[in-house]
């Protein structure tokens, strides 16, 4: 696609407010993409609430259809139906796509499982627009979106949508919720898993390895998640005795393993434990582990200060984390990380080189890694390796937009070729 060729990018996501990692990426990338005069950017969402940064941007056309989030819909029957097939979302997206040229338009879908439903994928396919889906999670193949048994608190090894999978009560809420999710998955598989024409962007090798075996498509492209990093690296972490845990305070995040390991080691070592974050286990853990400091929620600027004064970040998650942003945030401050072996953090952390890796859920193994990190020479070496190899610019939104823009062009170029590889005549 020529440099001066104008293209339209339709970004699709359930929400139009920054409420999580995927939402932030969808919204911020729309803003960055709209800065290029050759890009015509449309943001399509189910959410009636629109973030100020979108609302005030004249370069972006924002279309929100005011369909409530599944969990927030008081009419449960209606929520169940909308979650499987949102007809309103389909109708409204048709209106947008009708006036666009498929030869110069990419529909980039960041998520649909909370409100829009797979109807947005179906209608885009029917109208023959090229599709790029970013795999922010596992909902494209796994009914509960995590390849994780929330009841047993362990990784799930079952084949998605097999009879054993359907019979397994692995959902956070109830088995009824699991059955509903399986019904949604059956409809969704028709348009996502069974399609050979969809392009997928994966944010980590872990997501690729768990998702790709169940997909008919062969078009997978690595697209690292962007993140705003402080680039304020410090080299004095060996002076600290603080071990930091950052994230949602819930069972699957392994925060209790962190609390237990720190509390037991405090009997023989002068160390402190800090938990930054909120979640359903917060009050319980506060009572159970009074020697741990629970900070609660903090903003990005405050969090950077916690990274800068800690000795190490511990990432104790026991679930299939797709691409935890906590790790690059910590490394941008020069902070070594101790991470579990079941997350994509192991694609960034090299055991004994720039951090440490231990078996998920094994508190004794975590204690051993913490004790190893009490050696000042180890922390100093980790910091030097982080400083030599970690580049904040690699994670910037500017770098992301360059990569995703190039990917859009490649997709459009490929779409305009016939099966013999000859260029199609554009009309």
Automatic annotation (TrEMBL):
Top-level taxon: Bacteria
GO MF entry, a single one: glycosyltransferase activity
InterPro entries xref list: Glycosyltransferase_grp1 (IPR050194)
Gene3D superfamilies registered for this protein in UniProt: Glycogen Phosphorylase B
Keywords: Transferase
Pfam families per UniProt: Glyco_trans_1_4
Record keyword Repressor present: no
Entry annotated with the keyword Isomerase: no
CDD domains given in the database record: GT4_PimA-like (cd03801)
Record-linked PANTHER family: SULFOQUINOVOSYL TRANSFERASE SQD2, TRANSFERASE
Protein name: Glycosyltransferase
UniProt source species: Eisenbergiella massiliensis
